[in-house]
Amino acid sequence: MNFMLIYMGEHTAEVLSRCGIAEVTDRVQGFCEMALNRMGSLLDQPRAVRVQNLQAERARRKARAEQQLRDAAANAKNAERTARLTRANQRALAQVAPLAAAWARGDGDEAALKRYGRRTELQLLTMEPLEMKRRVSALQHGQSGRLGEAMAGLHGLISLHPKAWGCPPHS
């Protein structure tokens, strides 16, 4: 009601003091107009519709908050899974890298040396980053899979058959 009185120019000094306004400027006039437009659109709706819209907005906020909690829990679970995979990959690399280095020097049985010669992902274990960039094209790298996937595969093989790989069982 106060905004309407100010907007229509029918305000009194009491209305202005109640609103904390010293004088009606263009900015105050514009604010009153904006507030009246907003209130007018609300008042054009029946009270039941306004209440229903308010309840729906509260329900949407609650659902959004719950979804954010679920997303945070899923992200934490994924982060833990990624950390476990990273640790497994590091253990696999630590166990297989010395073997791959030996194969790169030509040490080992003939089957292992042939496998090393054919498998880009095994050769990646002994390459420096610049050498990887120079020798392994993006297509080859894409076909052999990501190094992390190769490490995970090697980790699985080592876990199943550590003696066949010449590695002590890990804990």
Q: What do these coordinates show?
A:
The protein has two domains: 2-44, no CATH class; 56-160, no CATH class. It has helices at 2-8, 13-19, 26-43, 47-105, 110-118, 120-124, 129-135, 138-144, 147-160. By secondary structure, the protein is mainly alpha-helical. It is rod-shaped, with a radius of gyration of 35 Å. α1 packs across α3 and α4 packs across α9. The model has no long low-confidence stretch (mean pLDDT 77).
Gyration radius (Cα, Å) is: 35 Å
Q: Helix count?
A: 9
In one word, what is the shape? rod-shaped
How many individual domains? 2
- Percent of residues in beta strands: under 5%
- How are helices and strands ordered from N to C? HHHHHHHHH
Structural class assignment: mainly alpha
Q: Percent range for helical residues? A: over 70%
| Number of strand segments | 0
Low-confidence stretches: none
The largest β sheet comes out as: none
Arithmetic mean of pLDDT: 77
**How many angstroms does the end-to-end distance come to?**
76 Å
